Amino acid sequence: MEIKSLNSVIEELKETVDIKQADLDNLKSQLEFTNTKSTQLQAQIQQLQTAHDTQVQKLNTSISNLTEEKEVVQASLQESAARIVELETSLEKIKVLEKEVETRQILLGKARHEAVILNEHLGKALGMLKQQSNSVDNTIDKELISNVLINFLQIPRGDTKKYEALQLLSSLLEWDESKRVASGLSHHQQSGEPRGRESFISLWTDFLERESTKK
């Protein structure tokens, strides 16, 4: 009985060992599968990490490029703004110049109009002088003498016009040599010097021509 009981125990132990061995083999298989799966997962993780690093590097490069482009655009905007200010300043100057040109054109038109009127007056005066030169009447207009005398008195001392006005007066009044010497126009009689009405016509014509040229 004892031997049978012992054999029975041995059989049970063998069965238990077989079961444990099967469990151990099963665990080994699971461990191998787990190791294989872990290796695969690590490889996938490494691939994902590499892809992530590559993507991050690309993003960093894109950010750097965008930053540079932003700086270029900002510099271009600043340059454009400065150019706009410069153009606005130039436009204001052009407007001022256009206004000055317009004003000068108006003044030029007025000057031309005045020149036309002056030339008309000069022509009339010269015509009157020619008529007087051909007339035997030796009468001198008092208003003309008064105007020349007033002009003479208003001319500052030392101005050459004062001598010209005095010379015109001497011709208008037909001064003789003694009066010309007394007035300071002459120190002695000069040969070939025009006298009387002829001298007056010449001096008055020259005077009008000089005045018209100044306009």
TrEMBL record:
GO biological process, one term: endoplasmic reticulum to Golgi vesicle-mediated transport
GO CC annotation terms, alphabetical: Golgi apparatus
UniProt keywords, alphabetically: Coiled coil, Golgi apparatus
GO molecular function: small GTPase binding
Any single Pfam family the record assigns to this protein: GRAB
Primary location: Golgi
Coiled-coil features, chain-numbered ranges: 3-83
InterPro entries: GRAB, GRIP_dom
PANTHER family assigned: MYOSIN HEAVY CHAIN - RELATED, THYROID RECEPTOR-INTERACTING PROTEIN 11
Name recorded for this polypeptide: GRIP domain-containing protein
